[in-house]
Amino acid sequence: MAEKAAHITSSLQARPSIFELIAQESLSGLLYPSFKIIVQFLESSNSQRYQWLSEWNEEVFLGINGLLQLHYLNTKGASFSESFYGLYRMHHGENLRLSDKAKYWSLFCLVVLPYLSRKVEKYVVKFQDRKVGKAANVCHKISVASWQCVSLVQYLWYLSGRVSAHSPLLSVANLSLQYSMEQATHSYSWRECLSSPRACARLVSDGLTQGLQLAAFFLQCLQWYHSDQLSHDKLSNLIPHPPVVEEINILSPAQCPVCKKPCRIETVLMTSGYVFCYRCIREAIVARQSCPVTNLPATLDELIRLFPNK
Question: CB neighbours (10 Å) of residue 269?
Fold first, then answer.
């Protein structure tokens, strides 16, 4: 009975939490956006030299991601993001290394499926104005929504303990994620590395693995910086350009952009800086909740009465 209780306790401890699973999927989703940021930086530094990289970034990332995931599947029995959080893939009910069939299936799900998904989404957006594109867009939205529903149900089943895998793709291959067992690492001396090619290759492999795990933290920082910079750029682009005034006549009253007549009860909208008739701008904001000139979001609280000198 004690042995059975110990086995149950170890099984429960080997079950990753939903937060760790979501975190490793989030890290996996950062790989391609981070690669695009690097490509954009290289293209901005030398557009002629790295133009091909921008045109073939999908295929280049397909090869790099394939080599990365294959390396981790062979050495760690897990993907790059799963190994970062101390997880590995195993057959249901067995504590064995991944078979070749499981590795190929894992490689297909980790590398090929995201590549095909991005390609399909790209072509759907490209041809969305055509009749065929509109139908394809509807089918694509339905398929994405269906897959999200299936994944949500799988998550709920995983939380309730009905299934051992959190992902439908893992369930198809009868795989699940478990905590990796820590193995004692052998420290090689310089004499062993120089005399034994196997020890030298092992040392290089371990160094590469540790370097990639450190690079994962750099990818998260890079994505955070890029998202913060992107939000700053979006806010800066919201500042409207000043209106073009051909002739300035101080004696003539301001012209309302809505009614094209001299302003009555001159009122400025703080969102855009334009001056309107109070009645015109009030009706426009009530009807549209935005500036009638710049289409920026606006409310009645942003109206200020002006008292020009006459």
Answer: 24
Of 98 and 218, which is predicted with more confidence? Answer: 98
Whether residue 6 is predicted with pLDDT greater than 50 in this model: the reply is no
Alpha carbons 240 and 290: distance in angstroms, whole number: 13
pTM, two decimal places: 0.58
Report the Cα 169 to chain-centroid distance in Å: 20
- Mean pLDDT score of the chain, rounded to an integer? 76
> Among residues of the chain, what percentage have pLDDT more than 70?
68
> What distance in Å separates the CA atoms of residue 249 and residue 246, rounded to the nearest whole number?
10
| CA–CA separation, 271 and 288 (whole Å) | 14
Confidence label for 184 from pLDDT (cuts 50, 70 and 90) = very low
Burial class from Cβ neighbours inside 10 Å (0-12, 13-18, 19+) for residue 203 reads: middle
d(CA 43, CA 45): 5
Phi, psi of 290 (to 5 degrees): -155, 165
Distance from the first to the final alpha carbon of the chain: 97
Question: Which residues share a beta bridge with 88?
Answer: 178
Two tokens, residue 189:
């001396």
